Amino acid sequence: MVFMQSYCEGNASISHTWVDEGISPCFYFTLVPTILLTIAFFLGTIHCIFYQKYGTPMEPKFIPRSRLYGFQQVVSVLLLVQFPGGIVWRAASAAELPGYVVLYGCFSALAWAWAIALLRVERRRALLMDRTRGHSTVLLLFWALAFSAENLAFVSWYSPHWWWGLENNQQQVQFGLWLMRYISTGLLFFIGLKAPGLPRRPYMLLINEDERDVENSGQSLLGRTEENQSTWQGFRTKVRLLVPYMWPRGNLFLQLLVLFCLGLLGIERAINVFVPIYYKNIVNELTDGTHWHTLSITVCVYVLLKFMQGGGAGASGFVSNMRSFLWIRVQQYTNRVVQVRLFGHLHSLSLRWHLGRRTGDVLRSIDRGTSSINSLLSYIVFSIFPTIADIVISIIYFVTNFNAWFGLIVFICMTLYLTVTIIITEWRTKYRRDMNQQDNNAKSKAVDSLLNFETVKYYNAENYEVSRFEEAILKYQVSEWKTQASLALLNQTQNLIIGSGLLAGSLLCAYFVTEGKFQVGDFVLFGTYIIQLYTPLNWFGTYYRMIQNSFIDMESMFKLFEEEEEVKDEVNAGNILYKLGKVEFENVYFSYTNGKEILKDVSFTVLPGQTVALVGPSGSGKSTIIRLLFRFYNVQGGCIRIDGQDISKVKQTSLRAHIGVVPQDTVLFNDTIRENIRYGRIAASDQEVEEAAIAADIHDKIMAFPDGYDTQVGERGLKLSGGEKQRVAIARTILKAPQIVLLDEATSALDTQTERNIQASLNKVCANRTTVVVAHRLSTIIGADQILVISDGRIAERGGHDELLLKGGLYADMWMKQQQAQDSDSSSSETEAKDRKSEKLQPPSTSSGHHGH
């Protein structure tokens, strides 16, 4: 029969915490279950009350089915069972059953039973607020402490009171139980970060989606979903996109530079170890009365190492400055490649995307995204990895050269610090995302308002625009306050953990010095090393936040990269073989959105050198035909051919090289007139530019400007009139010398006289060229070889001007209406002229005559 003779084995005292090079089992197996039960009971009770008061029962259909959750439950139950099982086995196999074994088994079983209950509560009830990723803080803290407690066993590696020797059956069983606990608690913690048994999105959002039945629609709901995802969502995809920028392929010099910088990083780690050691040696040599020659050498080596290290963990030392200097070239390479690739990708996107984009939003995303990639690489390579290496090296050094207590202190502080940092940082991610969104909104409003300042002036809306901008700024500042407040909370929590660890370690080291076990130099070494270690550890949270913020900032940029090119060249596409310029539309169907066809079975042929005019009411599909021919979009049905070649089978660049476009709304670059005309053919000389301007009948007008061809046209060409801009566009097209010309209502916005002048210039452009004209004023296309009347996406009529008038159909009706409008305008102009003439001939007013009396 087994008797409980004493609480600790061998009548030892629980106050003896360190026995025979290890933690006293009595002390350890009393402290650990007490802490775990305290956390599970008190915090768990608060947790349950909170969920009962503020939570709501989840409907079964919203609870995800997960094998990992079942695995969590099985592992938790297994841990619960092994504690009372251990008591039974110990009682059956040993002659003595110490009291701490019973307490450890009972308290641990109660704690894990409470943890299982919390796990079930979280699965069945949901808080109405948006939850963060992972389980609740109480469960994560419980699992983290349980896992850390099992790691404490390593401190007693050399102690004969523990099971590491595996000398008998009892130690082997204890080791097996410990191994099971170690693996199980570790798995529970890491699986708990993912929380497989809980919905991935806020419960209220799931309910709203179910009620509105918008499983795959509703961009606003989708947007909210993304805002509550973790920044580590899609981590592999993000890293895969980053890899090409991390290693400068094809540049041997930069590759050697990267390797050299990594070598300097390793040197820094070694220096960080030797600086406090030499500082300790100086103190010991001073107290021991060592000879001056030896002391001076030690001091010189220490100063040299300190010079190499700089102020605190190599923050500004020679090595780190050299590394930063050499890394500039690599950083510039990364920055350049990212921006160039993204800029090229944006230009490759379809017209549909560019018509729907928000320029201010895109520019902010590019700006933050490119800078965040540099920050991300710098923080990961030169901050995160070195910090982790310093922590691991310090733990090994303290355990081997001091004793296990110091390594234990560093390990516990590091574990608590990293756990709290990750949990709080993940929680505050949504505030950072919202701040970015509000920032984008504010900048977009500002850009839109400034780009449309004429409209603002026309409607006296300056105050309205300022108030809108101020409202956007206020929303941004609310989000900014939440971000900064949560940051302050995180910093204070981190400081509390680090300060507690520093206090415990310093008191312990001072105690050993007073006991004569350590020298004064050892205390100096500990203080120097621990501060040197905690400096990067203190920054570790900042690095984590910055990396997370970089991922957040990159999300918008990654979305730009993920935008699919709607119009792509086929894999084996070749250049178009231009012969005569015959254009054919064969049974073409097209729609911008599903369910609303713009073009329906459109077929026509433009023979080489002919001019075909497209007329019809607004929205009938005239401009769409021009865009399809230029291949801004792909047709949904039918085929478009040039000289018998399907334009979807040839390269876009070769197709567009043969086509010139004069659009309805000419937008010029904010540059000189000369450069805007030269844009038609970049390699053209100044003489060729002027010849194109003469052909477009704008040369004399340009020469009348004070700066001539060097005149700045302003943003979007606003310093020029509509007719001047149009002629610059015509000169640009003349300089390109295309074989096919597309005119998209090029003169619709101009007055009659300007239109006639420009029409003469257009006739020069179109001479002997295949031409497709979209016309609003029918008088401009009387001489067209063929006129197509587009109505409701179909060709309603076709033929010459006279032929269509004789038909008496849509074209004849449009012609009559325009002629009546012109006659009305002419008569009203004549009436106004007569009125002005009669006003001049009227006698003086009666008031003037009154003075005559």
TrEMBL record:
<keyword id="KW-1133">Transmembrane helix</keyword>
<dbReference type="GO" id="GO:0000139">
    <property type="term" value="C:Golgi membrane"/>
</dbReference>
<keyword id="KW-0067">ATP-binding</keyword>
<keyword id="KW-0964">Secreted</keyword>
<keyword id="KW-0496">Mitochondrion</keyword>
<dbReference type="GO" id="GO:0005765">
    <property type="term" value="C:lysosomal membrane"/>
</dbReference>
<feature type="compositionally biased region" description="Basic and acidic residues">
    <location>
        <begin position="831"/>
        <end position="840"/>
    </location>
</feature>
<feature type="compositionally biased region" description="Polar residues">
    <location>
        <begin position="843"/>
        <end position="853"/>
    </location>
</feature>
<feature type="transmembrane region" description="Helical">
    <location>
        <begin position="178"/>
        <end position="195"/>
    </location>
</feature>
<feature type="compositionally biased region" description="Low complexity">
    <location>
        <begin position="818"/>
        <end position="829"/>
    </location>
</feature>
<dbReference type="InterPro" id="IPR036640">
    <property type="entry name" value="ABC1_TM_sf"/>
</dbReference>
<protein>
    <recommendedName>
        <fullName>ATP-binding cassette sub-family B member 6</fullName>
        <ecNumber>7.6.2.5</ecNumber>
    </recommendedName>
</protein>
<dbReference type="InterPro" id="IPR003593">
    <property type="entry name" value="AAA+_ATPase"/>
</dbReference>
<feature type="transmembrane region" description="Helical">
    <location>
        <begin position="252"/>
        <end position="275"/>
    </location>
</feature>
<feature type="transmembrane region" description="Helical">
    <location>
        <begin position="520"/>
        <end position="540"/>
    </location>
</feature>
<keyword id="KW-0967">Endosome</keyword>
<dbReference type="GO" id="GO:0005524">
    <property type="term" value="F:ATP binding"/>
</dbReference>
<feature type="transmembrane region" description="Helical">
    <location>
        <begin position="138"/>
        <end position="158"/>
    </location>
</feature>
<keyword id="KW-1278">Translocase</keyword>
<keyword id="KW-0547">Nucleotide-binding</keyword>
<feature type="region of interest" description="Disordered">
    <location>
        <begin position="817"/>
        <end position="853"/>
    </location>
</feature>
<dbReference type="GO" id="GO:0005886">
    <property type="term" value="C:plasma membrane"/>
</dbReference>
<dbReference type="GO" id="GO:0016887">
    <property type="term" value="F:ATP hydrolysis activity"/>
</dbReference>
<feature type="transmembrane region" description="Helical">
    <location>
        <begin position="97"/>
        <end position="117"/>
    </location>
</feature>
<dbReference type="GO" id="GO:0015439">
    <property type="term" value="F:ABC-type heme transporter activity"/>
</dbReference>
<feature type="domain" description="ABC transmembrane type-1">
    <location>
        <begin position="259"/>
        <end position="549"/>
    </location>
</feature>
<keyword id="KW-0813">Transport</keyword>
<dbReference type="InterPro" id="IPR011527">
    <property type="entry name" value="ABC1_TM_dom"/>
</dbReference>
<keyword id="KW-0333">Golgi apparatus</keyword>
<keyword id="KW-1003">Cell membrane</keyword>
<dbReference type="GO" id="GO:0005576">
    <property type="term" value="C:extracellular region"/>
</dbReference>
<dbReference type="GO" id="GO:0033162">
    <property type="term" value="C:melanosome membrane"/>
</dbReference>
<dbReference type="Pfam" id="PF00664">
    <property type="entry name" value="ABC_membrane"/>
</dbReference>
<dbReference type="InterPro" id="IPR027417">
    <property type="entry name" value="P-loop_NTPase"/>
</dbReference>
<dbReference type="GO" id="GO:0005741">
    <property type="term" value="C:mitochondrial outer membrane"/>
</dbReference>
<keyword id="KW-0812">Transmembrane</keyword>
<feature type="transmembrane region" description="Helical">
    <location>
        <begin position="376"/>
        <end position="399"/>
    </location>
</feature>
<keyword id="KW-0458">Lysosome</keyword>
<keyword id="KW-1000">Mitochondrion outer membrane</keyword>
<feature type="transmembrane region" description="Helical">
    <location>
        <begin position="71"/>
        <end position="91"/>
    </location>
</feature>
<comment type="subunit">
    <text>Homodimer.</text>
</comment>
<dbReference type="GO" id="GO:0005789">
    <property type="term" value="C:endoplasmic reticulum membrane"/>
</dbReference>
